[in-house]
Every structure is written in structure tokens, then in C-alpha cells.
Design goal:
The structure is a single chain. The chain is of the alpha/beta class. Strands 3-4-9-10-11-12-15-16 form an 8-stranded parallel barrel, surrounded by 8 helices. A 5-stranded antiparallel β-sheet has the order 7-6-8-14-13, with no helix packed on it. The protein has 11 helices and 16 strands. The chain has one domain (7-53, 90-346): Alpha-Beta Barrel (TIM Barrel), CATH 3.20.20.70. The structure holds flavin mononucleotide. Flavin mononucleotide (FMN) binds next to strand 8 and helix 9. Flavin mononucleotide binds next to strand 8 and helix 9.
């Protein structure tokens, strides 16, 4: 038996299950071509919209690091500090749809065996905005995109009908997905915000609208730290800051918890995992929870902007993993996808030294069965 690193996800064949997520690594034609040359199985383009985009002055993203000897987290570069997270307040692509269309065509012509998913975003407050989603969807698929990712997750939109504000409203999740599905000839993925109480509710709404997959997580809402010397936020413009998004290693366990909620609620549906991935050990957690692909941003940004070494390592570690588990019959992702999904259970189902007095947080009522 030989290992098979290709995988099928939402009907699309991927040469490997590793994608660059929608972010700076996929903001240009040059970057995406370099990414494919380096070996990434697919890319999700930087989110494309129709409204004007103007970013803040100065840095749009920075990286926080922590020291081995103290728990200090700071954007200041120090020797021996390890990566903690990325922090960004970057908006979606500042390039127009007209700019993107010929580029998507050229990229997909040059790499027909790789997968290009177009990330798109519009408002949702009225029919005109729903029409914008359809315009974007049709333009991208006509240009050659293999699929569409609907951005319901950008954490820094003031508009109440855009970005993560859609992902926080199950009605809007359904309506927008349905509008896109009306015109889509390619698979439609919905990228949800992790900033809700129960992501299963919004995922269910997307599936009701016809979504082919759910993607999670985008960055988590967060602020940079205040410098104890200057008393200014470590990233600011004129002393001011607004809520931005946290990515990278710090969000891995939180993103996994969101993913476990999703894959347990919908074991038959398709999920693409994102958050804190830089090698196979993290990707594996997502696969074992049930994801059919995974996506990478922060780690790729820090590796020559598109992650040539990250994908080389992922590819090698993935092959090594499959070879190691060949005897168990695991020769491709489908053989082990979701194999640890059922290990996430209720607190009351976890073994304890003495279970007789534990009633899942409830008081035992005399004469009745234990309330679970
Ligand atoms: C600078 C920056 C810009 C981003 N822009 C987008 C975007 O335009 N659309 C989107 O869906 N996600 C965007 N993201 C989120 C990433 O795609 C990804 O979901 C997130 O960073 C978590 O993955 P990571 O832990 O590998 O960084 C951006 C992230 C960063 C750091």
C-alpha cells in the first residue's frame, strides 16, 4: 500500500490538504504563484469586496512574542523570544474586483491542478448588498475560481451588516449563503467568526442556506498590550487603537474547541480548520477532529511571506505520518479523519475517583434518577 496525499473536499480534488488562508500571503498574483511553486495544495485569496477600502496609517499587522524565562507578552523583538501570536487590524483587499479577475484567470490557467478559492465579502442590509455578493461570486467563478469562501468573520468592520457582524447573526448567515448559492456553480464555504456564544447555531444557519463547508477560525477579537514605559498601546495611531484580530499559536486551543463543537454537531458535513497551524502536529489535531483541509496564515507570513518552508515541512511530516500508520490502514486522510472526534465529551462523562457523589453539578433528588 502506498500513501496518498491527495484529498477530496467539497467535491474539489486537492493535491494535498494544506492551504494558505485568506490574508497577506494571498493578496497578490506574485504571492499566489510563489505559493503554488512552493507546494501549497490550495489558496484562499485575500477577501475581495466592492466597497472602497482604506487601511489605517502604519502597520496593519504585528507579532507578539513571549520569553522563555518570564510570561511577558510583547510586540518588542527580544533575543530568544518565541512567537505568541499575530495581531492585525488589516481590512480586506484594497484591490478592486476588476484587478482580481484577470489575475485569478492567469493563476488558475498556470496551475490547473491547484485549488484557488476566492474569498468574497459584501454587506447584507438590503437587496442591493445581496446583489453585490452575487456579482462577486459570478465574477470570481467566471474567472476560474474553484470555489468561494464567504467572509462572515472579519473582526474589524464597523458596519453592522458586514464581516463578523454577519457571522454573529444566524438570519444573515442563512440569507447571504442562500443568495450566493442561487448563482454559484462552484462549492461555497462560509468562514465564521469564533466570537459568538455557540458557533453551532451560525453553522446550522449556513447549512440551511446551502453551504458546502464551514471554515473556522478567523482571528479572535483582541487588543494589543499597553507598554508599561510609554503607557501607549504597542500598536496605535495618534495614541488610539481599536479591536483587532489575534492569530497564531495563542489561538490554537481555542480554535480547536470551536472546531470540536462544529464537527461533533455535524459529523457528516465538511470543515476546513484554521488557527495556529505551523506543522503537522497542529494540523493533525484538526484532521482527527474531522477537518478535511486546513489553512495557514501567521506561520506563513513569518516564513518568506508565503511559507515555502512551512509547506515543505507539512508535506514531509504528512507523508511520514501516513507511512508510520500504514499498518493501521491509514493511507489517506479519509482513513483517519475524525478518528478522535468522539473523545470530546461532557464533563460528567469523564471518569473521576469517586463518582457516587457527583451528579453533573446538580443536586441529587431523593427518590429520582441522577439528573444528567
Ligand atoms: C494580517 C492579516 C490579514 C487577514 N486578512 C483576512 C482576510 O482578508 N479575510 C479573511 O477571511 N481572513 C483574514 N485573516 C485571518 C486569517 O485568514 C486566519 O483566519 C487567521 O489569521 C488565523 O489563522 P493563523 O492562526 O494561521 O494566523 C487575516 C489575518 C491576518 C493576520
Amino acid at each position: 500500500m502506498s500513501v496518498d496525499v491527495t484529498t477530496k473536499f467539497t467535491g474539489i480534488t486537492f493535491p494535498n490538504p494544506f492551504l494558505l488562508s485568506s490574508a497577506p500571503p494571498t493578496e497578490s498574483e506574485t504571492n499566489i504563484l510563489r505559493a503554488f511553486e512552493a507546494g501549497w495544495g490550495g489558496v484562499v485569496t485575500k477577501t475581495i469586496g466592492l466597497h472602497p477600502v482604506v487601511n489605517v496609517y502604519g502597520a496593519k499587522a504585528k507579532f507578539m512574542r513571549t520569553s522563555p524565562d518570564t510570561a511577558v507578552v510583547s510586540m518588542k523583538k527580544r533575543p530568544d523570544a518565541a512567537l505568541h501570536s499575530s495581531w492585525n487590524w488589516e481590512l480586506i483587499s484594497d484591490k478592486t474586483l476588476d484587478w482580481w479577475e484577470p489575475r485569478i484567470r492567469r493563476i488558475t490557467d498556470a496551475f490547473p491542478d491547484r485549488v484557488l478559492i476566492a474569498s468574497i465579502m459584501a454587506g447584507s442590509g438590503n437587496d442591493k448588498e445581496l446583489g453585490h455578493w452575487q456579482t462577486l461570486a459570478k465574477a470570481c467563478q467566471n474567472a476560474g475560481a474553484d470555489g468561494l469562501e464567504l467572509n462572515f468573520s472579519c473582526p474589524h468592520m464597523d458596519r453592522k451588516d458586514m464581516g463578523s457582524n454577519i457571522g454573529k447573526d444566524q438570519g444573515l448567515c442563512s440569507v447571504v449563503t442562500e443568495a450566493v448559492k442561487e448563482v454559484a456553480k462552484v462549492p461555497v464555504w462560509c468562514k465564521l467568526t469564533p466570537a459568538t456564544a455557540d458557533i453551532v447555531i451560525e453553522a446550522a444557519a449556513c447549512f440551511r442556506g446551502g453551504a458546502d463547508a464551514i471554515v473556522s477560525s478567523n482571528t479572535f477579537p483582541s487588543l494589543p498590550l499597553i507598554d508599561p514605559e510609554t503607557l501607549d498601546f504597542e500598536i496605535n495611531v495618534d495614541g488610539f487603537v481599536s479591536s483587532g484580530g489575534l492569530g497564531g499559536p495563542a489561538i490554537l486551543p481555542m480554535a480547536l474547541a470551536k472546531m470540536a463543537q462544529l464537527t461533533k454537531a455535524f459529523p457528516e458535513k465538511s470543515f476546513s480548520g484554521i488557527g495556529g497551524i505551523s506543522d503537522m502536529s497542529q494540523a493533525l489535531s484538526y484532521f482527527l477532529l474531522g477537518c478535511g483541509t486546513v489553512q495557514v496564515c501567521t506561520a506563513a507570513m513569518l516564513d518568506h511571506a508565503i511559507g515555502p518552508n512551512i509547506i515543505k515541512r507539512l508535506d514531509q511530516q504528512y507523508r511520514d505520518f501516513l507511512e508510520k500508520h500504514e499498518a493501521e490502514g491509514w493511507s489517506s486522510l479519509e482513513d483517519f479523519r475524525g478518528a478522535r472526534r468522539d473523545r470530546v465529551v461532557l464533563q460528567s462523562e469523564i471518569r473521576r475517583p469517586d463518582a457516587s457523589e457527583y451528579h453533573a453539578g446538580y443536586d441529587a433528588v431523593e427518590g429520582y434518577a441522577t439528573p444528567v
